[in-house]
Design brief:
Length: 364
Amino acid sequence: MTQPIELKVNIPQKQAYSYDILIGQNILPQANEIISRYTSAQKFLIVTNETIAKLYMGSLDIKNSLWLILKDGEEYKNFENYKLILDTAAENFFERNDCIIAFGGGVIGDIAGFAAATYMRGCDFIQIPTTLLAQVDSSVGGKVAINSEYGKNLTGAFYQPKLVLSDISVLKTLSLRQLKTGLSEVLKYAFIEKSCNCPLNYRFFDFLKQNKQEIMDLNPVVISKLINICCTLKAAVVNQDETEKGMRAILNLGHTYAHAIENLTDYTVYTHGEAVAAGIKMAFKLALNRGLVGKEYYDSSLDLIDEYDITPALSDFDKEKFYDEMFLDKKAKNGRIRFVVPNGYGSVVLISDASKTQVLESIC
């Protein structure tokens, strides 16, 4: 095992909730030793899905652990499985200082984290993300939730983990489609970098253009740097706005559109990343039509998304239904849809005054 990259998520108002992110190769076999430094838990409930269990159940050996294996898919991030996690913990006499481990992608992280946030009003929680999307985005920042029939992530909490342990070696088992779905969240950071108020300037847009082949080949040096950059940018935002009272909304570039796409297709047609990539394109079109970005930046940004070949051909949506669906977005306020849109190179802004005509014209 090479020495992992270590970075800190600091929550200024809640220093006790600050935590480390460890990024490295072949660190799963060392997980038991590493985790013991971050929690005093005596028992561990490892929540995962069928795909990850088949691949890595033998690689993660945590003492005094119990495995709970859920079906794989966004549609299983529901009340029934949330209750199953709570019931499993209770039936096995888990206490408040015991630990729930999310071992999987964003779906597992969200539902296991929400269970941890609410079991006995909060037990220890550790993220071991296994997808690129989870390693660069959803495992960091403490957003945990489940879906309802009315929309995505409408029931949830902000609950920080004790540790995020990202082993890049597991990414080699991702399908090309799953790798690309994670890259949509990676690309998002190129478009919001300046708005993150991070003291470091990565010029992430250029990094993604210059290293495309190494990224697609999962070059370990490049991928480690990529995950480190994304997590550092997200941590910079979370450190300033843990519970999304203001600037944290910038992390949702493209997501207002994406959640509508997912809801309208019952989460069964497009991956989250595919929907986000399509949503980012729509946000750019809204920004262009409002004069917030110029044609040159618009074209170069869409070209970058297209270089990574993430966005599928979308269904022929009823635009009126699409528009109505966006009012269920969590950023909606006072009966208005709020959008995160680009307003310059690497910069975004939150707007709430887009007319219905402008929104309908941006849906493509």
